[in-house]
Amino acid sequence: MTPILTRFSAAAMLLLCLAFLSGCATPIGVNQLSPREAYQDAYANPLNSGVLSDQSKYVLNRYDMLKKNHKEPALTIVALHEKALHDDRCDILYALAECSYLYGSQLRDSLQAEEQKLAPDYFLLSVLYAYYFIRGERSQERLNIFDHRVRAAIDIYNFGLWQAFENSTTEELVLEAAEHQLPLGKISITLDTKQFPWKMEEFKKVLPANKFAVRGVSVCNRTAGIGLPLIAIMKKSDLPVPVTAILRVEGDLASLNAGTACASLELYSARDSSFINTKEGIAIPLESDFTTPLAYKMEGSSFFDLSLGAFLGKELNKIPDGLYMAESYSPGKIPIVLVHGTASSPAWWVELLNTLTADRKIREKYQFWYFVYTSNKPIVISAAELRDALNEKVADLDPLEKDLALQQMVVAGHSQGGLLTKLIAVDSGDNLVRALTGKDLASLDMPEKKKAKLDKLLVVKALPFVKTVIFFSTPHRGSFQSKTWNRNLVRWLITLPANLVETSIGMFDYMTDDVKKLLGGKKNILTSADSMSPDNPVLKALAEIPLAPGIRGHSIIAVDGDGDPKLGDDGVVKYSSAHLDGMASEFIVKSGHSSQLNPLAIDEMRRILVENLTASRNKLNGP
Predict the structure, then answer these.
(1) Which CATH number fits domain 310-481+535-614: 1.10.565.10, 3.90.1150.10, 3.30.530.20, 3.40.50.1820?
(2) pTM of the prediction?
(3) Could you tell me which of 361, 357, 379 has the C-alpha nearest to residue 369?
(4) CB under 8 A, 24+ apart: contacts of 347-350
(5) pLDDT tens, 346-364?
(6) How many CB atoms lie within 10 A of CB 6?
């Protein structure tokens, strides 16, 4: 060994020893990661980390383009595009999708206006490359369900659609036919609304659902698939409609390059369509979001003002009393009417609505309505308003009674709303009149005008189109909270409209002694608190009236605390008051009075609705 080599070897050995002793890392080695860090590292991509995935880096490295991509991303995309035209390996398309999306994001965030204008073109390119990759027409290499690039490519496609069609000024989506001259190729896009139940002119704006983070509900319900979930706001009603958009591309990469490619931007109602079909007849699930449109509707909503102030009559409801639809009318779907409780509003049904609309079986067979009422009025008056509203709505929507689904209506009421619900589902005869006055209607010696009013309020006939009723925490025999001192306090605090005060006082002379005692004097107004008193003879009589023939009833009863539930209560209503004989089912849930928020109670309502579909199957001609 020569002295030079000996000195070199000794120096190398010395350096290695020094590196070892100093603890320096070798140029190639490993670092330890936690499971979470390992997952994030393995699946990093432009969407979740703002970097290219290892799979895309592999492709760039194959063509010695890694450094070029850092310095000149646009030229790298051009070069990679050229490779894809002559090389049928599908991983090039995936790399193009990631590179285009990442570069589009960089342009979007640029401070230069001219660069910002280019961003939508690159996002649209990312959509097209992702579509070609998913379709897999250019390669013999078959994709499989274990290849996470497939899901990542679908996400790039979905989110790319958002940013390709977003107006940077208004942040609304521009969904229209147009020809797009792209940095690489040209494509002509048409708007396809053949499967869409509305006209585009009916909407005032369309927003991407992914743009908003939901708050205030337990779960944001989304279904995984292909397409961009949208919130489409209707002009007349301001109703937000859940919609999904997809871009179906005709022609291959060569067609795009030659400028002859075309595509159709297709719109679907998320409530009506869960799948689309390929030319080969393969059903592909649509991505959808049902929670965000609902939460968007509730943002700043006046529903939250329909509470204590309105109950006390100190302020007018910002939303007039009446029947409203949570969605546009859909013939063939059974209405579910939700009736809120005392000092409450439809906002208290949002958790239930969010959960049930996410269920495909419920969503495709039912539509949701809700009834708004000022809950300080006597219950029989609010119930009469509910009957009138339902009769008018059904007659308006289906005057010829051709929609069989409307004749299978489900009504669900919480607390006082449950009492209103029962008063549309019984044939009372003179029972309620007798409980109030001690006589039947014909025997009462009163002016015909008053007798007609009493007839409207207390001689009840079940609505023929209501077939199922669901009672949540309903005080059929009154609430122990409606004690004398409580009712007197409410009466002192409450302000009723003059016409209701006149009605209450005008009927006093015809009431039984028990009812007069309940009121405590002629000048005392009758409120919903009196209506829900355990001492109210009318309420006692209503509790004993069975549901009309052909109507199925279900009770969901809340009991808070341990012990025998049949001896318990929910803080407002005792089990013994909420229980009714003759119900098709009774479900006891451990909960406070707001049982309509409880997930177990909501799931019980789902069970009831699914069972109801089976009972209605022959009439609706559907599975």
Answers:
(1) 3.40.50.1820
(2) 0.83
(3) 357
(4) 347/298, 347/301, 347/303, 347/304, 347/306, 348/414, 348/594, 348/596, 348/597, 349/414, 349/596, 350/216, 350/217, 350/294, 350/295, 350/298
(5) 888 999 999 999 999 999 9
(6) 10
